[in-house]
Each structure stands twice: as C-alpha cells, then as structure tokens.
C-alpha cells in the first residue's frame, strides 16, 4: 500500500466484518484502490481466506495469545501501528460496543475525524468518502465528508449486505507488532442471558408499546412471534419505566432491519421509528387512527390489539397449516 492509499476494514464481529468488506470492495473498485481486512485474535488464521473470498485484497493477520479476547488497549495499539505504517486513506470499523470507542480513540491518536453509525457510504467527485447518518433525534439525515485523513467511519451491523464469496487471489500478511501487556485483566467471562436470536438478526419482530396493559399480556405477542418464527420487541417505556424488558428498539436502542415488523399499541414517535425505518414491511395495530405509526406503516389496522392479535394468530395458524 503506497502513501495514504487504500481502505482498511476491521470488526471484532466476523459477520459484520464481511458486511463491511462488501461495501469496502465497492468503494475500493470505484477509487481503484486496495482493500485490506484486519484480523486480530488468537488462532484466527483460518478465517483469513474467507475475508479474501469476501473481497479483501490483503489480510493483515495479528495472531497472538495476548489478543485472545477483545481488550481496547492492545487492539487499539495494533490498529494504530497498522495505520501509521500503511497510511490508509479510509478506515471502516464495525459499530459495536467495542468498535465505537476503538474507532474514536484511533481517530484521536491519528488526529483525524471519526463519523459514527453511518447508514450510507459513497464517494464524491474528489474521491472523498461521503457518510450519511441519522441525526436530530431521527428527524434528519446528515451528509458528512472529512477534512483530514485517514477518514474513519463506523458501520452498524446489517447496514450492508454480506457479499457472495468468490474464489479470488489475495495476500495474507503477518503484521509484526509489539503487543504490550494490557493494563486490565479479564478475570471471568459469563454469557449474557439473551434469547436465541439477537433482535437485530430477527427476520420477524412482533413489537409492543404502552398499548399493552399488563406484563402477562406479552404472551399474546410471543405466541404470534412463535408462529412467524420471530422475536418479540418493545418500545423504550416498556423497558425503562415498566421494567418488563431490559432493551428496546429505537434510536437509543436496537436498530432493526427485519423483513416484517408488527407494531402493536405503539404510537410511532420518531425515536422509535428511527430504529425500524429499514424494516422491509411494517404492519401497525393501533386503536387511534391518527397515531403517527400509520404514516410509516405499509399496512395498518385500526383496532384494539386485544381483539386483533388473537384473531391474527388464529388466521395465521390456519394459513400456515
Ligand atoms: C432522547 C430520547 C430517546 C428515546 N429513544 C427511544 C427509543 O430508542 N425507542 C423508543 O421506543 N422510544 C424512545 N424514546 C421514547 C419515545 O419518545 C416515546 O415516548 C416512546 O417511543 C413511546 O412509546 P409507546 O409507543 O410504547 O407509547 P405511547 O406513545 O404512549 O403509545 C401507545 C400507543 O398505544 C395505542 N394503544 C393503547 N391501547 C391500545 C390497544 N388496546 N390496542 C391498540 N392500540 C392501543 C395508543 O393509541 C398509542 O398510540 C426516547 C425518548 C427520548 C427523549
């Protein structure tokens, strides 16, 4: 990679890394530049070829026992050394709980800018990266370019499609970097008790809002979700105020991209809608015909969810028999 050239992509989440590689390939082709993926961890060498098949021209491999699990200091040192040596023009990092602070700290070290949570990426006539992200509480989309390089942006999961793997040639480079002993030590890791499928990965989400009167009524949504092979979601007040859930869908919660989103007793305030705008099909059930959710819904049912949900369940059961 010559001076200030090429794109580097990294995420500690393998699927997200593949998704970003797909978009990175498109941009690299347009700019006729090189695309490199960064693979950090221990015993991860076996994944390098998959990254090449998904579009990487090069894979920088940093395989070290000290990097077994994500820790911000050593991972940041690796990316910083790589960026200092190879001088990429653009660095795309997965927007995860680990990836976001990593990108921000890398930008600080490299004295450049960082644009978080980009939903769209393109390139302008001058070859600069153009990032689009939702802003002002979900009411506007900001288009931002950089004044400095490298251009660092973070990309949320499921923003871009994972590309189809193809047989291609690529280079795997063992990147030699001094791994400092981390200042913190992971004493124990425990799996989080979560449902089998993460809500971001669900194809169908049956979601409830304050129209649901009692916690026990969640079963109405669970039954429907089960028939449709989906997950139950919810608005923020059901988690924050009523404590029925620990997470929620929306601007300050999970941004979802299901094939079908059924909003039950949800008003459709902008902060909630900002998290579902990429759903392929939105069905809303609300007893208020003027509820804003109907403005974004593809199909709307004006009615009481306590009547509609059992009827819908029965109809679907018959249909799917
Ligand atoms: C900074 C900030 C960030 C926020 N982030 C988020 C976020 O990420 N996600 C989020 O969800 N919220 C978020 N909120 C909260 C958001 O502003 C709304 O308060 C919230 O989304 C409203 O939730 P709701 O639709 O469940 O409740 P409501 O707005 O009270 O709507 C309930 C709806 O249920 C309908 N209804 C009532 N009974 C029935 C029935 N029997 N059958 C059918 N319909 C019925 C009513 O007509 C009404 O439309 C945020 C707020 C702030 C200030």
CATH classification class of the largest domain: Alpha Beta
- From the N-terminal CA to the C-terminal CA, the straight-line distance is 58 Å
Strand order of the largest sheet: 5-9-4-1-2-3-10
Number of separate helices: 9
Shape: elongated
Count of the separate structural domains: 2
Architecture of the largest domain, CATH level 2?
Answer: 3-Layer(aba) Sandwich
Instruction: Look at the structure and give the mean pLDDT.
Output: 93
Proportion of helical residues: 25-40%
Q: What is the CATH topology classification name of the largest domain?
A: Rossmann fold
Structural class by helix and strand composition: alpha/beta
What's this entry about, in short?
It contains 9 helices and 15 strands. By secondary structure, the protein is α/β, with parallel strands linked by helices. Bound molecules: flavin-adenine dinucleotide (FAD).
What does this 3D model show about the protein?
This protein is α/β, with parallel strands linked by helices and 321 residues long. It has two domains: 7-174, HUPs (Rossmann fold), CATH 3.40.50.620; 199-320, Rossmann fold (3-Layer(aba) Sandwich), CATH 3.40.50. It is 28% helix and 23% strand. It contains nine helices and 15 strands. The chain has a seven-stranded parallel sheet, sandwiched between helices. A five-stranded parallel sheet has the order 12-11-13-14-15. Strands 6-7-8 form a three-stranded antiparallel sheet. A hairpin with a 5-residue loop joins strand 6 (120-123) and strand 7 (129-135). Helix 3 crosses helix 4 (99-109) and helix 5 runs parallel beside helix 9. The longest helix has 18 residues, at 14-31. The termini are far apart. The mean pLDDT is 93. Flavin-adenine dinucleotide (FAD) binds at residues 209-211, 235-237, 248, 250-253, 265-267, 269, 271-272, 275, 285-288, 291, 304-306.
């Amino acid at each position: 990679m010559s001076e200030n050239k090429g794109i580097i992509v990294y995420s500690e989440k393998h699927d997200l890394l593949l998704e970003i590689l797909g978009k990175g390939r498109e941009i690299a082709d347009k700019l006729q530049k090189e695309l490199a993926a960064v693979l950090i961890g221990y015993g991860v060498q076996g994944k390098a070829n998959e990254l090449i098949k998904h579009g990487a021209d090069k894979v920088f491999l940093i395989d070290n026992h000290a990097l077994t699990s994500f820790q911000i200091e050593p991972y940041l040192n690796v990316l910083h050394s790589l960026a200092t040596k190879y001088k990429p023009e653009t660095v795309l990092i997965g927007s995860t709980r680990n990836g976001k602070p990593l990108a921000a700290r890398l930008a600080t070290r490299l004295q450049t800018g960082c644009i978080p949570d980009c939903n769209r990426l393109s390139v302008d006539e001058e070859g600069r990266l153009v990032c689009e992200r939702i802003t002002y509480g979900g009411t506007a989309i900001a288009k931002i370019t950089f004044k400095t390089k490298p251009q660092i942006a973070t990309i949320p999961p499921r923003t871009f499609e994972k590309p189809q793997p193809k047989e291609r040639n690529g280079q795997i480079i063992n990147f030699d970097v001094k791994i400092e002993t981390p200042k913190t030590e992971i004493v124990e890791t425990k799996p989080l008790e979560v449902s089998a499928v993460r809500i971001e990965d669900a194809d169908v989400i049956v979601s409830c809002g304050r129209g649901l009167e009692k916690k026990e009524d969640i079963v109405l949504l669970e039954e429907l979700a089960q028939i449709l092979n989906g997950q139950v979601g919810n608005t923020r007040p059901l988690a924050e105020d009523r404590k029925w859930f620990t997470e929620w869908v929306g601007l300050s919660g999970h941004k979802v991209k299901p094939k079908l989103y059924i909003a039950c007793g949800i008003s459709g305030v902008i902060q909630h809608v900002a998290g579902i705008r990429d759903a392929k099909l939105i069905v809303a059930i609300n007893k208020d015909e003027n509820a804003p959710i109907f403005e974004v819904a593809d199909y709307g049912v004006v009615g009481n969810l306590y009547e509609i949900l059992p009827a819908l369940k029965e109809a679907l059961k018959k249909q799917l028999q």
